Amino acid sequence: MSPQDANRVFNQFVADRTLPPPIFHDHFIGRPGGLAIFFVESLRQRDSLLDQGHLVGWEVEVRPLVFSASPSAF
Q: 28: domain range?
């Protein structure tokens, strides 16, 4: 996948209003992909990040943050 296509797909993922609200996202330089931080309040919301159709074939990891338990704490 080209960097431009990866950026487009990643932006569509972050913009998906069926997913938990994104707090932050950025794109990688030199390697297609990116980082997104979402505000997740339930297991169902967490699972929706893994079961979305935007990033097929991508490596997706979900990890909780220790000190940023809310958007305002981030």
A: 3-73
